[in-house]
Amino acid sequence: MIFIVNGDIIIKNGSVFQHERQILKDINLEIGKGEFVYLIGRSGSGKSSFLKTLYADLPAKDGSFKIAGYDLNSMKRKEIPFLRRKIGIVFQDFQLLYDRTVEQNLSFVLKATGWEDESSVSRRIDEVLQLVGVQGKRKSMPHQLSGGEQQSVAIARALLNSPSVILADEPTGNLDPETTNDVMKLIMKIRDNGTTILMATHNYNLILKYPSRVIKCSNGTITESTK
Questions:
Q1: Cβ contacts of residue 25 below 8 Å, gap of 6+?
Q2: pLDDT grade, residue 13 (50/70/90)?
Q3: Which of 24, 108, 115, 202 is disulfide-compatible with 16, CB 3.0–4.6 A?
Q4: pLDDT at 6 exceeding the cut of 80
Q5: pLDDT of 223 higher than 70
Q6: What is the pLDDT of residue 150?
Q7: Which residues contact 213 (CB under 8 A, 6 or more apart)?
Q8: CA-to-CA distance for 217 and 42, rounded, in angstroms?
Q9: CA geometry: angle at 54 spanning 49 and 58, to 5°?
Q10: Contact 30, 18 (CB under 8 A)
Q11: Of the candidates 63, 90, 75, 73, the residue with the CA atom closest to the CA atom of residue 168
C-alpha cells in the first residue's frame, strides 16, 4: 500500500465503473485539506458510484485515485478497513442497526475498527454524541429518534475514528427543511474543525444558503460547476 502525504482527494484521468460498465471517465479533481465541496448532478449521473469508488466499495481501475493518504489503485481488499478508519461515510437513509441502541451502534463500529478498551469506547461515544448534540439519546433505539436525530447519530458514527475526510451521499435527502438546516449547521461545524467534506446533494437551496465549491456529474464525467 502506497501512502500519499499531500492532498485529501486527488484524481487524475480517473474512470468509475460498475462491474465492467464505465459510468464516468476523464475525472481530474483535487480537493484540499479542510475543503467543503458539493457534488451535484441528475439521478443516475454517477454521483453515488463516484463516492463508492472513493470509499472502495467499487474498485478504482483507470487513472489515479488518492484519498485520505491512500492510493486506491494499489489497495488490496484486506487494506480497505484501514482506509475506512480515515474516511467517514454518511448515507441518506442513515443505515443504523435498528435492533441495537445508539450506544450499541457506535460501539459496534469502534470495535470493528480495532478499539478494545471498554472505557475508551465509552468515552469516545460520549464525545461524538455531545459533538452532534444528541448526548441524551445514548440508550435510545433508532426507531425512538426523529429523522434529524437519526442522521445526527449517523454523523456521529462517521466521526468516531476522527476521519480526515467525510463522504456524504444526500445526507439531508429524507429530512424536512428545518431539520435539514440543523444537519447542515452540524456539517459546517465539522468542516470548520478542519475535516474535508464531499457532499452529494440535489438540494440547490443548500448551495445558495451555504455557498461553497461545486462539482458536477454530467455527460459521463465530473467538472467544476458555476451553479
A1: 14, 15, 16, 62, 220, 221
A2: very high
A3: 24
A4: no
A5: yes
A6: 93
A7: 35, 36, 37, 38, 224
A8: 8
A9: 55
A10: no
A11: 90
Written as one letter, the residue type at 4 is I
User: Edge to edge, what strands does the sheet with 87-91 contain?
Assistant: 87-91, 165-169, 196-200, 36-40, 213-218, 221-224
In 3D, which of 132, 131, 127 has the Cα closest to residue 150? Answer: 132
* 32-41 pLDDT, tens digit each: 999 999 999 9
* Per-residue pLDDT tens digits for 142-177: 999 999 999 999 999 999 999 999 999 999 888 889
Distance CA 216, CA 24 (A): 11
pLDDT digits (tens, 9 = 90+) for 38-54: 999 998 899 999 999 99
Do residues 24 and 50 lie in contact, with contact meaning Cβ atoms separated by under 8 Å? yes
The grid cell for 45 is 449521473
Average pLDDT, the chain: 90
Question: 157: closest CA among 138, 175, 176, 184?
Answer: 138
Reduce the DSSP state of residue 116 to 3 states and report it.
coil
Distance CA 75, CA 60 (A): 9
